[in-house]
Amino acid sequence: MKLLVTGLSHKTAPVHLREKLAVSESALPDALHELQNLGATEAIILSTCNRVEIALSAPDHAVPGAIMDRFLTGWQGSANAFESHLYRLEAREAIQHMFRVAASLDSMVVGEPQILGQLKTAYSIAKSEGSVGGLLETVMTRAFSVAKRVRTETGIGQMAVSVSYAAVELARKIFGSLKGHSVMIIGSGKMGELAAKHLHRSGANRIFVTNRTRERAEQMAAVFSGTAVDYTRFASILPEIDIVIASSGAPHYILGREEMQRVIAARKNKPMFLIDIAVPRNIDPAVNDVEGVFLYDVDDLEGVVNSNIRERSKQAEQAEAIVVEEVERMMSRLKLDEVTPTIISLQEQLENIRASEVVRSMRKMPNLATEQQQQVKAQIEALTKSIVNKIAHGPISELRRNAGDPEGVQVIDAIRKVFHL
Amino acid sequence: MGESSLIWLRVAAGLYSLGLLDAIITVLRRRESLFRPALGAFGIGALFHLVSIVEQGLVQNHFPANDIFETMSLCAWVVTVAFLAIYWRYKAESLSVFVFPLVFVLTLVAALRNPVSRWQSEAVRNTWLTIHIVLALLAYAALLFTAVAAVVYLLQEKQLKKKQTRSFYRLFPPLGMLDELISRSLGAGFALITTSIIIGIVWSYIEYGTSWIDNSLITTSFVTWGIYLALVFFRVGAGWRGRKAAILAIVALCCSAITWIAHLRLESRFVQ
Question: pTM of the predicted model, to two decimals?
Fold first, then answer.
C-alpha cells in the first residue's frame, strides 16, 4: 500500500493560490468519492485557511501521483497553476508530515490548537463517507495520539502568543479562574475591546464600560451584556474592579499612584490587574509600585509574547523529537504489517505438512496398545514441532529483517516461491 | 475570691464565647454571619463582667488588680469597653476578629482562679491532654501550609511585578489560588489552635490548681496563640497580603516551633 500527501500551505503558497484549491465542507464528500473513483483506496481532504491538503493511499501497483494529478485536473481545471507550490510527500515523509501537522508544528502559530480540531473534522467526514479504513486511518489515528502526546509532554500550547491572549494569561496568573471577576474597560480602543472579549470568554462576566462619549460606552457594554458607567464617576467604582483595561485616547494619565493606593486600600489589598494598551499611556507607570497592583503596558505585554514565542520554539524542538520517534515506531509497525500475512501463511503451510505427516506415521503403527500409541504420538508431535520451528526460524527472521526495505522485496518473493505461499 | 463574683465572671465568659465563635466563623467562611448576636452578647457580657469586678473589689476591699487573675479580668473588661466604644463611634467591625477571641481567652483565664478537685480518672486526664496535643499539631501543620503558601505568593508577586516570565514562574500556582490556600489554612489553623489552647488551659487548671498560670509552657503557648491571632487579624481585618503577610506567617511558624520544642522538653514532666 502506498501513501501520498499533496497540498499547499501558508509556507508554500500565497492565499490567492490556496483559496483556488480550497474545498468547501459541502463539496468534501464529492471530492472524496472522486478520488476513490480515480483509484485511491482511501482519501482525506483537509481544507483550512492556512492549508489545503489531500492525503490518499493507493494499492502497490497504482501510481498515487497520477491519481492526484487526474483529480486536480478534473477538480480545479489544471494542476499546473499550483505545481511549483505543491508539495508531494510519500511513505515516511508523508507520515512525518501528517504527524507534524496534527501536532501543530507546521502551523503559522506553532502550537495553536485549532488545527487538530480541523484535522479531526476532516477525518470524521472521510470516515462517514467511507473513504478511510486502512493504512490512512491507521496513520491518521496515530497522528491524533502523537498530537496529544506532544501537548502533554511539552508546553507548546500553553503560552499566549498574542497581546490580547497574553493579557488573559496574566490575569489567570493573578486571579486563577476568571469566573466571577469584574473588568472595567476605559475608552474604546480596538485592542482593549479584543482583550475584553478574551477575558469575557474566559469567564470574567462582570463587565463595566466607561467612555467620554456615553453612547459609545453603552454600545460596547451591550456587546458584553455589561454596564455602562459615567466617565466622571468611574474611579469611584474601581475598588469593585479586578481588571482594568485602559485604551482611551486621553493625552494624559487618567489613573495615578495616589488614586490607586486609595483604591487598593478600599479593596483590602486584594490584587488588581491593570492593562494599559493606550498610546499615549493612560496609567502612570508608578502605579506598578503600589502593593497588590500589577500594571502592564503594551511593551510589557509584547515582552511576555516574545518570551512565550521563544519558549514555544524551545518546546517545538522537543516536539519534533517526539514526532521523529513516533514516525520510527509507525514505520516499524507498518513494515511488520506488510510481512505478517506471509509469515502467517508460512507457519500454516509448515503446520499442515507436519500434522498430515504425523497422521500418516501413526497409521503405520496400528498394532500398538492405546497407551503406547499415545506415548509415541506425543513424542512424534514434539519432534516434528521442533523440526518445523527450526526450519521456519530462518525464513521468518529474513522476512522481518527485509520488511519495508525496497531491496528486500526479492528476498520476500523468493521465500514465497520456495514455500509455495 | 468571692464566689458570686466568679459566677458573674463565668457568665461573662460564656457570653463572650459567642464572640469567639463569630471570629472563628468569620475567619473560616469569610463572612460575619454571627456578628450582630455576638455583639449583643458582648455588651451584656461586659455588664456581668463589670458586676464581677465591682463585687471583687468590695469583697477584697482593694482595687481588683491584685494578682494575675484579677489583672486579666480587668484588662479584658477594659478591652471590651474600648471595643464597644470604638464600634459605637466608627463601626469598626473588622476589629472584632482580634478583640472577640482575645477578650474571651483573657476572661477564661481570669475565671480559672479557684482550684477545683483533681481528675476523677486517669483516662479522662490523658484523653483531654491527647486532644489538646493533636489539635495543636494540626494547627502547626496548617500554619506551615500558610507560611509556605505566603512565601510562594511573595515570589509569584515579585515575578509579576517585575514582569519576568522565566520558565519556572509558570510552575507557581496563581496568586488567587495561593490567597485562597492561605485564607483556608490560616482559618483552619486558627480554629484548631484556639480550641487546643482552651482545652490546654482547662487541663492545666484542673491539673495544677491555681499555680497553673505560673507555668512557662503556658506563657509560650499564649505568645504563639497571640501571634496567630495577630496574623488572623492582619489578614482578615486589615487584608495583609504579600510581603507583610509572608513575614508574619514565618514569625508565627517560628514561634510555633519554639512552643513545640518547649512542649517536647517539658512533656516528660507533664505526661507521667
Answer: 0.69
